[in-house]
């Protein structure tokens, strides 16, 4: 099993779970896992408390990912209390399972090497720029979260050890050659026989329904005939793109902006720096002595990049000669930034600098002076920006007027439409949970079914959507109701006739099946099939699925009846079964498929066992 764990540490499952860790880090920061209040907890696993703050961050993280996945539709899901309660419970169970797995990994002594941690961090997309790891982004992200590189490595080591434990459980599963062969024999099996279809439509005319039967079905199934409330809106719409299209910017305005804002078109001075870092550790004075010794070597002519690779405690930048990338204000520790900006010439090295992370020597490796962009290169951008700014102001002013007039004259939209040059339009019919294209935003639906709009017939408040603003009012409203029998009578009759016809078709199929069992010859038209496979498209899907569920008969053909999706009844007769052949080309794929099924069962069994033997207290 330990060998499987070592092999699995670079496997696809590890990468998948590491991706989830990265996503969580991106949403919540490392502190979501290491921080949290000790005064309250959502769950207690053995002696470890999962803090309420930790749970809340994980829950918000999950909500954020669902919002990204479903967009505005998530707002509708969030209104379902049962769904959100289930989501919270799922998040808590995930945290409990993570803790149990981490505890087990610790007991088994699963640890990470420095090289494995480095490789994992380098692959994280959150720390990359243009597909390459950026130490500058890495340090900035950790600094923003309030953590040192050492603290993040400790956190990641715990998470990777947990992942390796899970990978070990997955990788330990195997399938015997005989199991794979048996699976292929079943999967590649071929079956022959015949089938006949008895159409339900042929019995429609034989069905007789009384008015009483239709009424009984109607009153016994009132929930089927409930119609949600719905509303059709009159509305006026202010569109930002329409405003922008009417804004004109002259050549003189473009040139004046360029001349009056020279700094906007001048690139900033660019500095690239490298550093050598010595962390404080347990003895800050020893760290100071060590950095001073490195500075002495530099003064004696030692190569900065080589010393960074061999001596720097920042092993990421050390592998790149200490490179920290382009220096910008607010991106690094202020003491390091100050030292970098104080250097005058390429190749200059600072005195020893103290930061919250340790001691540093900072080198200026590249210096680019500021440059001004030519007017011809930016004229179009200036024109577009000026037009956008002017349109934003006009749009805002029109918004205010739209809101004011529609509020002051709240019983009609005609006045505001005339004053602002807009058109009163009519929406499709809308329901509370079912909008229409362009009218499915939660805030719009909420206003549409508000008391003021729905019952009092007033104009709504201003509804601000993406690049468009609306005021709505009810054009026509229909409250929720149960449809009258007269409105649905034809539908009920059609449904009942079809249902009865299906029953008659099934009864006829039973008669044919009984006759065949007695050895009689059937006049029913049968279609023969020869050596069809599980994936064959020659048969109706219901027939094919039932065919491969049937057990062969030792004395002759076996027969059964199955209902098709359209209500027809199909009689299936199985006459021959040919065992499947073992396919060497797909053996490996079949083995992986079988092992994957075993691994899924093993994973669930491991977690269930850990939970069964743990002391868990949940406080949700």
What secondary-structure arrangement, pairings included, does this model have?
Blueprint: H1 2-8, H2 12-28, H3 31-34, E1 41-45, E2 48-51, H4 52-70, H5 73-78, H6 81-107, H7 114-123, E3 128-129, E4 132-133, H8 135-145, H9 149-171, H10 177-187, E5 190-198, H11 211-220, E6 226-227, E7 230-239, H12 240-245, H13 251-260, E8 266-267, E9 270-279, H14 284-299, H15 304-311, H16 315-318, E10 323-327, H17 334-342, E11 353-354, E12 358-368, E13 371-372, H18 375-408, H19 414-420, E14 425-430, H20 442-448, H21 451-454, E15 463-465, E16 468-478, E17 481-482, H22 485-517, E18 527-532, H23 541-547, E19 558-563, E20 569-578, H24 584-612, E21 616-618
Helix pairs in contact: 1-9, 2-9, 4-6, 6-9, 9-24, 10-24, 11-22, 13-18
Task: Give the key terms.
620 residues; alpha+beta; Triger factor/SurA peptide-binding fold; Chitinase A, domain 3; 4-stranded antiparallel beta sheet; 24 helices; 21 strands; 18% strand; extended; disordered N terminus
Describe this structure in words.
- The structure is a single chain.
- The chain has 620 residues and is of the alpha+beta class.
- It folds into four domains: 191 residues, Triger factor/SurA peptide-binding fold (Orthogonal Bundle); 129 residues, no CATH class; 119 residues, Chitinase A, domain 3; 101 residues, Chitinase A, domain 3 (Roll), CATH 3.10.50.40.
- Helix content is 51%, strand content 18%.
- It contains 24 helices and 21 strands.
- The strands form seven sheets. It has a four-stranded antiparallel sheet with strand order 18-5-20-19.
- α1 packs across α9, α4 crosses α6 and α11 crosses α22.
- The radius of gyration is 36 Å and the shape is extended.
- The N terminus is likely disordered.
């Amino acid at each position: 099993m330990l060998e499987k764990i070592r092999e699995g540490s670079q496997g696809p499952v590890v990468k998948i779970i590491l991706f989830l860790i990265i996503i969580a880090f991106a949403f919540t920061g490392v502190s979501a896992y290491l921080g949290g209040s000790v005064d309250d907890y959502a769950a207690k696993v053995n002696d470890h408390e999962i803090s309420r703050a930790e749970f809340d961050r994980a829950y918000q993280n999950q909500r954020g990912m669902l919002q990204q996945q479903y967009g505005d539709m998530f707002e509708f899901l969030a209104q379902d209390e049962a769904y959100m309660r289930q989501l919270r419970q799922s998040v808590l169970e995930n945290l409990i399972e993570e803790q149990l797995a981490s505890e087990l990994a610790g007991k088994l002594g699963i640890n990470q090497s420095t090289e494995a941690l480095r490789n994992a961090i380098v692959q994280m997309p959150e720390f990359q720029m243009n597909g390459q790891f950026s130490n500058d982004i890495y340090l900035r992200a950790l600094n923003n979260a309030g953590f040192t590189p050492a603290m993040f490595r400790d956190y990641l080591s715990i998470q990777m050890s947990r992942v390796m434990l899970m990978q070990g459980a997955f990788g330990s599963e195997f399938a015997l050659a005989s199991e794979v062969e048996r699976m292929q024999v079943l999967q590649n099996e071929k079956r022959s026989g015949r089938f006949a279809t008895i159409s339900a439509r042929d019995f429609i005319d034989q069905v007789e329904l009384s008015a009483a039967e239709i009424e009984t079905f109607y009153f016994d199934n009132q929930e089927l005939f409930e119609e949600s409330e719905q509303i059709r809106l009159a509305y006026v719409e202010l569109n930002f793109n329409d405003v922008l299209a009417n804004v004109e910017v002259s050549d003189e305005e473009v040139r004046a902006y360029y001349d009056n804002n020279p700094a906007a078109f001048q690139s900033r001075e660019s500095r690239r720096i490298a550093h050598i870092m010595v962390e404080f550790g347990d003895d800050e004075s020893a760290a100071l002595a060590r950095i001073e010794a490195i500075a002495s070597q530099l003064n004696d002519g030692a190569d900065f990049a080589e010393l960074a690779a061999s001596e720097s405690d920042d092993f990421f930048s050390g592998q790149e000669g200490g490179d920290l990338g382009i220096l910008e204000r607010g991106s690094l520790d202020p003491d390091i930034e100050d030292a970098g900006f104080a250097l005058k010439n390429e190749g200059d090295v600072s005195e020893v600098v103290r930061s919250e992370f340790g001691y540093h020597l900072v080198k200026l490796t590249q210096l680019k002076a500021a440059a001004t962009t030519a007017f011809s290169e930016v004229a179009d951008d200036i024109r577009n920006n000026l037009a956008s700014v002017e349109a934003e102001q006009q749009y805002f002013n029109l918004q205010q007027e739209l809101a004011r007039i529609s509020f002051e004259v709240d019983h009609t939209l005609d006045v505001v439409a005339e004053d602002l040059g807009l058109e009163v339009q009519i929406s499709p019919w809308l329901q509370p949970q079912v909008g229409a294209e362009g009218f499915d935003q939660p805030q719009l639906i909420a206003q549409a079914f508000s008391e003021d709009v729905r019952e009092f017939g007033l104009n709504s408040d201003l509804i601000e959507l993406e690049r468009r603003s609306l005021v709505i009012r009810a054009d026509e409203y229909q409250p929720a109701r149960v449809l009258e029998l007269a409105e649905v009578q034809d539908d009920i009759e059609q449904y009942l006739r079809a249902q009865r016809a299906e029953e008659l078709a099934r009864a006829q199929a039973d008669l044919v099946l009984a006759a065949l069992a007695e050895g009689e010859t059937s006049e029913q038209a049968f279609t023969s099939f020869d050596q069809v496979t599980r994936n064959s498209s020659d048969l109706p899907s219901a027939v094919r699925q039932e065919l491969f569920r049937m057990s062969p008969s030792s004395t002759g053909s076996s027969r059964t009846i199955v209902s098709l999706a359209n209500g027809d009844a199909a009689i299936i007769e199985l006459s021959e079964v040919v065992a499947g052949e073992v396919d060497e080309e797909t053996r490996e794929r079949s083995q992986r498929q079988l092992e994957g099924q075993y691994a899924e069962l093993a994973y669930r069994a491991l977690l269930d066992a850990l939970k069964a033997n743990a002391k868990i207290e949940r406080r949700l």
